[in-house]
Design brief:
Chain lengths: 323, 122
Amino acid sequence: MLAQPTHKSRIVLLQDNSAMQHDVAVILRRTFRDYDVRLTQDSTQALHWLADERSHLLITDAQTRKVDALAVATSACTRRPGLPVIVLSDPPCDSQRISQLSAAAWIEKPPKMERLIGLVGRALSERMGWSGQLSIQALPDLVQLLSMANTSGALRIDTGPQLGLLWFDRGAIVDATLGKLRGVEAFHALMQLRSGTFVLDRRAHGADRTIELSATQLLLETMCRIDQKREQECGVPTPHSGTSVSQIRLMPVIEDREPTGNWSTPAQSAAECFERGLAHVRSKDYAEALAEWERANALDPENHTYQVNLRRLRDLRQRNQNP
Amino acid sequence: MATKSERISEVLRSLRQGTPEVIGAAVVSSEGFIVASVLPNEVDEDLIGGMAASLLGVSERISSDLMRSQMEQTYVRSPKGYIVVNSAGPDAVLVLLVSREAKLGLIFLELKRTIVELMKYI
């Protein structure tokens, strides 16, 4: 019988010592019941699992008999910046290479299970970020949102054949890669992708700065390019056709001012209409009251009191008309 | 500037906050229209308006026909609590939903104070 596909978050364990692999797996499965603990001795299989967003942690030997496991971990971290890695190693370990891995922790073999559980728990609880599905034109909106939120981290964009990375540092876009492209050109190419998946890893850091332009400049330029591309595809002129960002004059920012003059919110206007309606009810002018309350109800349709009174008034008028 | 209904709501809110035994309160016009209310979600505002209008009609009739006087206060007691209807000027009544554990003396005292406050806006 085929195994059922699992949608649980994963912990991948790359180990060639079967006994230790078994011991570690038993402990992890018992402690982290919500996680699917996957065991392998094969680096290709490990990389395949780790490419999936459901994989939240890699626990690996520093060196297995067949492969350089640290190279596997480095490769996984290149594809998934910020992926936590816990390295099991005999002392002396290759501390320099381990430190190059993002969010790495090192534990001596054979691992003390309490310490391992502590490290795994910390690595999983520290995991932050979100993922989702992109639709056409959503990517510039997403980038704008992240920039305005002063985000730091790496946005990994995966379209299947192409893998892109967009690095943020406190809201600034500092680096972008897409295939062989890098920097501003990679950014614009990324923004024109039509669909794919994305993951934001807030812990990823350390990208080289290849982009000096501000996020606003980048986004304006990219919107111009998207418009031009659409014009070429559909033959319909767009507001930005033939314009580059350097030609667009930004409107001066309007200073925040205290509101002046008379103004009221719809809820306030509704309350005033309701008040006038009550006065008409008192003077038995039900037609006017009805008009005011209908206005109040239209201005503030969520207000239950207006709804109740309007219903009662309609009933009352109907009864009066048909005694 | 707050409207009369908003100010009345404010008075009702402060009554409910200061007297936890008051489950809900509403000011209802003599025609049975709700002027303002602070009622829990499970209480039907429509029902309160209708009930207050009926109770008011019967109470006023009893007061005028049997006692040759104006209705001041009516209350209904049930195993689950009380419903107190108190006149608030010639055109409105204050309806209170009160839990059974409440000391009615204290409730009436609060009621009197609230009516004085409400009369500024009704």
